[in-house]
Amino acid sequence: MIGTLENISLLDEADELAAMMIQSEPYVSYLESKRNVERDQKAQELVRAFLKVRDRYDEVQRFGRYHPDYKKVIKEMMQMKRELDTHPSIAAYKQQEKQLNDLLGELSKVLAYAVSKSIKVPTGDPFFDRSCGSGCGSGGKCGCH
């Protein structure tokens, strides 16, 4: 019974934390920028065009450089991606998405490290992920503790 009450208490605290996240500035800004992209006709046209090019890109990738349209489609894909990324409402959305993701990552670290410093928390960036990934747990040269 004690374990069950502890679990219920933890779940209640998690619900409170989720409610706080939903009211946070990064989340509210993220939702606002998402709505802006959904209302922006030019952004929606760019997304549709990008998806069409991406489908062609996926087809070309199956054959690699041997596909007759390889260079043309790769170039189109890079141009569409650049156009998409530089559109003001899409760029703002991606920035807000990153800020929210960073906050969620920090929150994950705080929760995990409150339990144990040896818990591996994915950072989303393999170049800066400080965990050893091997799970050796030895505390040796790999940096696991």
TrEMBL record:
InterPro entries: Bact_com_dev_regulator, Com_YlbF, YheA/YmcA-like_dom_sf. It comes from the Bacteria. It holds the Pfam family Com_YlbF. Signal peptide: none annotated. This is Regulator. It comes from Sporolactobacillus terrae.
